[in-house]
Amino acid sequence: MKLFVKVRKKSLISFVVFFLLLLFILILLLVLYYLWYVGNVPYIKWSYPRTETVWSSYKDPIIISFSHPVKKSTLTPRIKPEIKGVWVWDSWFGIDGLTKTGRFYPSQSLTSDQRFVVYISGVSRKGFNESHELGIVFNAPKVPKIIDTLPRPGAIQTSENLNIKLKLDKSLEDNQTIVLRSQILKTDNSYSIKVLNNLVYVNINEKLEPGLNYNIEVWVKEGDYLSEESSSSSNRLVKIGQINYQTKEVDGLIGVTPNGDSVKVNERIRLRFTRDVDPKSFEQKLVISPNFDYKVKWITSKQVEILRSVNLEKDTVYSIHLKNGLLYSDGTSTKSDLIHTFKTIGKVQVVDVFPLNQSANQPVKLKIKIKFDQEVDKSSAENSFFIFPKVAGKFVWYEDNTLEFIPEKQLEYRMNYTFGVKPGVISVHGLDSEKEFSYSFRTRDNLVVLNVPTCSPSSPAYCQPQYPVSFSCNVYALKMVLAWKGYNLSPRSIISEMGYDDEYDGVWKGNPNKVYVGNADGSWGYGVYWDPSKRILDSRGIRSEIVKNWSISGLAKKIEEGFPVVIWRYNGTSKVGKYTWVAKDGETVKAISGQHGGVVTGFRGSSENPTHILLNDPWFGTIWLDAITFDYYWSFLDRVGLVVY
Fold it and tell me: Are 94 and 213 contained in the same domain?
């Protein structure tokens, strides 16, 4: 009994010790977490896409995961360029007011040349008087690539119809479609496409002739797309592959001419075989429809011509039919019917134009081309040509029946034009046209762009770091114009040369009119203004000028003269706010939330009244802002510009 009590007592002591140890560890972890939670500001711990990577697909949500639980009510997420969709914030451990993870579900797709910035302001822990700004940068989903095809390129086709299976490295986005180009594709109805995930099934509806080589180009057409509506204003074509096929002889028959759907009525009809043909059997098995009087002329024992005394009928489908059992001289015979069809030339049709119908942003120095499906009377085609608004010009003809119209003067900017040919274009060999062919396009805005280095995937040296958030945009803007003048300086060396002040006790103590306000590597701080920036240029003999309280027209005129302008503006994403602080030298510093730098390198419209301003942005790369938005952002710091000559 005593032994039982002693064992029980020891077990109880062990349990208490274990419980106290577990409690101590739990308290220690809570204390450490509290110290970490209090001592570290929130940051983006994980994201999809990761910063400076590629968004795999618009079908995937953007995911932002913070290091700390933060207040939902203060979060203001923005995406540039703007893309429609909805943000959903998870509740942290069921606490509705706190979150650590948010997801953005897009309802829009943009073209693959976009660079996105996700910028979240108002990041704040519960119980803290703070407001942080965090962001990531990534590129739009890429255009898919062809990784496999069936049949394989170069394969010999044994049938008249061609079915192609394309395997892509990723699925098409909602704003992307497959477009084919080939000599065998006469119209939009010449092929059909079915897409299933990353597989594309193509059915060529045109009949393939035996013994010929075919080349098919595969393009992706993409544009801005909304789930409920689409816009063709930003359509672009990207070639993703080219496939070559060869058709095989059919039962000894390797070719029949003519072929196609615009055959001249006086064309010769010839058949070529791989083996010697029995002439008597050939005449017995030959059926031509519609029928006409003909004679058979053997050029060689493997090649025969169908002679006729009159021309073929226009706009008519003819069939050359060799019934099965055609004998060859070696004793073999065909096992199936050999049928070849062609269509004679009909009414004049337009088969291609440039610029494309309903296209936008066309250059004002433009040559208009109209390609006919057959030879036409040039004078009648020129007389039938029209363009509205009316434009004077001259005509040039090419051997492939293409009419080119060259305007005497450049077209107007931002103008809708309609062009085409009226009915009555006279055919040389076929039938005259009986309908009007009409097309439209829109010219681009007047555009002035300077070749100044900018942030891009191919030039990452001009992109300010994003993770953790860098506050060196003003320095990177200066780096761009220095490179434009032939000087390659690192941001750290620029900050070191202009001087920096990183003293901060809840309020900055430095003066951005004198030095860079922030730490030496630019990862934390406010930034720097125009005077220190000008000193860097002056020290290298680069002439520059600071202009304050400027106008957009004055800015555009400097760009038109060929001189980029460094500017300071509101970034368009942070919580809007102006404030001041008194620097340690006694000067009152005028500041704004979301202060951001960039270089103006172009504009659209006239310099007197530009409609859009082009910015080389250390975050976004090359971006366009409409003039009203740009002026609003620029006004926060009194429209200051540093002109670099």
Answer: no
Using a 10 angstrom Cβ sphere, with 0-12 exposed, 13-18 middle and 19 or more buried, the burial of residue 288 is: middle
Q: For residue 7, what are the contacts with CB-CB under 8 A and spacing of at least 6? A: none
Distance in angstroms (rounded) separating the CA atoms of residues 613 and 181 = 37
Residue 84 · residue 587 · CB < 8 Å:
no
Asked whether residue 108 falls in the same domain as residue 131, the answer is yes
Low-confidence ranges of the chain (pLDDT < 70): 1-10, 33, 35-39, 154-161, 186-187, 209-212, 224-235, 248-250, 466-469
pLDDT for the residue numbered 231 = 39
pLDDT of residue 405: 98
Whether residue 417 is contained in a domain is answered as yes
Residue 377 belongs to domain spanning: 350-444
CB 230 within 8 A of CB 221: no
Tell me which residue of 625, 636, 620, 521 sits closest to 570, measured CA to CA. Answer: 636
Report how far residue 131's alpha carbon sits from residue 123's, in angstroms, rounded to the nearest whole number. Answer: 5
Inside any domain, residue 483: yes
Q: How far is CA 48 from CA 58, 70, 138, 387, 418, in A?
A: 12, 19, 9, 50, 45
d(CA 190, CA 204): 6
The residue to which tokens 């009119």 are assigned: 513
What's the number of domains the chain is made of? 5
Lay out the sheet containing 44-48: strands in order across.
44-48, 62-71, 98-106, 85-89
Residue 177 belongs to domain with CATH number:
2.60.40.1220
**Which residues touch 420 (CB under 8 Å, ≥6 apart)?**
350, 353, 370, 385, 386, 436, 437, 438, 439
Give every CB contact of residue 315 below 8 A, 6+ residues apart in sequence. Answer: 343, 344, 345, 346, 347, 430, 431
In a domain? residue 621 = yes
Measured CA to CA, the distance from residue 630 to residue 624 in angstroms comes to 9
Task: Please give the structure tokens belonging to residue 316.
Answer: 């008519």
H or E element at residue 546: strand 544-547
* C-alpha to C-alpha distance for 403 and 405, rounded to whole angstroms: 7
pTM for the structure as a whole: 0.57
Paired sense of beta strands 359-362 and 402-407, if any: unpaired
The span from the CA of 534 to the CA of 640, in Å, is 13
